[in-house]
Amino acid sequence: MKNSLFIQACRCEKVSRPPVWMMRQAGRYLPQYRKIREKTDFLTLCKTPELAAEVTLQPVDILGVDAAVIFSDILLLLEALGLPLKFESGGGPKLDKVFYLGETVRSLHPLDCSKLGFVYDAIKIVNRKLEGQQVPVIGFAGAPLTLAVYMIEGETSRDFHRARKFLMRETSSFEKLLQKLAKAVAEHLIEQVRAGAGAVQIFDTWGGLLSRDLYKKIVLPSLRQVIDPIKTLGVPVILYVNGSAQHLETMKESGADVLSVDWRLSLADVRKRIGYGHAIQGNLDPTYLYQHPSDIEKSTAEMLYMHPEPGLIANLGHGILPDTPVENARAFISTVKNWKC
Amino acid sequence: MKNSLFIQACRCEKVSRPPVWMMRQAGRYLPQYRKIREKTDFLTLCKTPELAAEVTLQPVDILGVDAAVIFSDILLLLEALGLPLKFESGGGPKLDKVFYLGETVRSLHPLDCSKLGFVYDAIKIVNRKLEGQQVPVIGFAGAPLTLAVYMIEGETSRDFHRARKFLMRETSSFEKLLQKLAKAVAEHLIEQVRAGAGAVQIFDTWGGLLSRDLYKKIVLPSLRQVIDPIKTLGVPVILYVNGSAQHLETMKESGADVLSVDWRLSLADVRKRIGYGHAIQGNLDPTYLYQHPSDIEKSTAEMLYMHPEPGLIANLGHGILPDTPVENARAFISTVKNWKC
């Protein structure tokens, strides 16, 4: 597995072509996924290892992606920390809003990993089914900031003013919350590696809301706290920040091996800013997959042209959108797979 | 008025201190504004020149800001173009969603400026009341992209996938829509200048969703189409883009005199990237006004230290938040007013 295209690219080794996968590649745009969801609600799917493994493998079988990101949800970690989580049909996930931050932080349990056993079991099943193929499993978790923001707001929001108010008014409680979450995130990722994940990705979906300076001061320590202990395990750590334009240099300082960037900057600009020590993952605008397949091929080729050096993992700049036609995803994947470095 | 601190700073002339105002400074955080809203709904307030003028002047009287941005809403232009607009209490503004973009674009009326007479009348009243004071009135409009996105989505959204799908699939209709809107925006801004606005600001609230390259290719021409005709009138044009981190160079190319940037980058970084030909407006994180006033003074001073050169208009990086205490806004304003360049 260490010789898979994906792991080699994470290590910036020279490869015949960039590996490719898509964030949210196990998901609603696939009819085979929707068929399973007709009979199974989202949470049950996450918590049933056989089913989670099955949908994790769908994009490998159907599209031939080079890595299998485990099917799960970042909020399950919060549930395992004792916060009740509801998925309402139609809307997104909901938690109880936080009213007293200090109290909430004090009462937060340490993580009991056995509550997330279904994730590790799913990874084991996927690994077993992928035996002999050079397709690693990617484990993942939300970044402490993104989890903290969800926890405080109770649901998704546009500007997350509630969470940002706490960050301003109760900075020390907020930092304690990030620390506690970082500890849990690290443990959860380590367990995923122990179960067989060949790489892990940290998703900081809401990092782009904070300024460069504030992120560096408040958020970077929590990212280091997650990444440091994982690095000793010898698997690549990927850090995705949505809104990476102002955070590239900070992402580099986090210790992550691979910087996963959103669609807002060109790969050439990203490489210019971060130099040559890290692999880059990204970054086709997911809305580009709404184009005609021949235009998707063109956009994908333009993206690949921008990064001729080793150390590129082709991906989207954010999760694939649920109403993307499968043939359009296929146009993206096959353009990369036919690329010659 | 040409010698006001504000206009001088727009022209990058040397001034004794940076001028200061706040986006959304006429708004809900002021008890005097809320008192008027108790008796008058939002749309009636916008459309009654005496009342709009009254709330426009409130922050000048209460906080001593250096410019009076006219109280209005960017969506009123769409209403004047024949699109029915509803403000539901509790929620935000709503328009009918667009289902057939080509048809919608073809059927869009040219702007009849007389339908926005209340804006121009309000500007005239404000100007009369400010006579003798060095406080210019700022007129404003939404950028063509932001208006197009609202128009297509019908309401605010998190990722605006609907609008971005049209942009990808019906690019030429989308560009035609931007052109039509740009024409209307230019006309509306010119009328505001004729009524006495000493400067105008274009708000591109959703520009940050697009990549640098796509914005430059699709959106920049529409910004130029708005800005070119106004420049002949001799008033400064300010361009605000929320998500300016990837767009600074494009903003510069738009022809705007003042680049109004969000809170995500430091003013020092912004100045370094854009050089010395343009004034900068910005960019304190509005959530920083949740801090204790003494910390607000510190944050404001840190921001001002970063930009010791002429050509700075102190402002927030986004609109002031409705639950900001007035004394906190005052701490921001007075720190700037007591600053010595």
- Dominant shape of chain A: globular
Our measurement of the CA-to-CA distance between the termini of chain A, rounded to an integer number of angstroms, reads 21 Å
**Mean of all residue-level pLDDT scores of chain A:** 96
Name the helix and strand elements of chain A from N-terminus to C-terminus, one letter apiece.
Answer: HHHHEHEEHHEHHHEHEHEHEHEH
CATH structural class of chain A = Alpha Beta
* Most extensive interface: A-B, 30 and 30 residues
Strand content of chain A: 5-15%
Which residues of chain A sit in consecutive blocks of at least 5 with pLDDT less than 50?
Answer: none
Give the strand tally of chain A: 9
- Give the neighbour order of strands across the main sheet of chain A: 1-4-5-6-7-8-9
Global Rg of chain A: 19 Å
Q: Tell me the domain tally of chain A.
A: 1
Q: How many helical stretches of chain A?
A: 15
> Tell me about the biggest sheet of chain A?
7 strands, parallel
In CATH terms, what is the architecture of chain A? Alpha-Beta Barrel
Model description:
The structure is a homodimer of 341-residue chains. The first copy, chain A, has 341 residues and is α/β, with parallel strands linked by helices. Chain A is built from 15 helices and nine strands. Chain A has a single domain, classed as TIM Barrel (Alpha-Beta Barrel), CATH 3.20.20.210. The first copy, chain A, has a seven-stranded parallel sheet with strand order 1-4-5-6-7-8-9. A two-stranded antiparallel ribbon of chain A has the order 2-3. In chain A, helix 4 packs parallel to helix 7. The longest helix of chain A is centred in the middle third of the chain and has 25 residues, at 171-195. Chain A is globular, with a radius of gyration of 19 Å. Chain A binds chain B through residues 156, 158, 161, 164-165, 167-169, 208, 210-214, 243, 245-246, 263-266, 269, 285, 287-288, 290-291, 317, 321, 323, and chain B through 156, 158, 161, 164-165, 167-169, 208, 210-214, 243, 245-246, 263-266, 269, 285, 287-288, 290-291, 317, 321, 323.
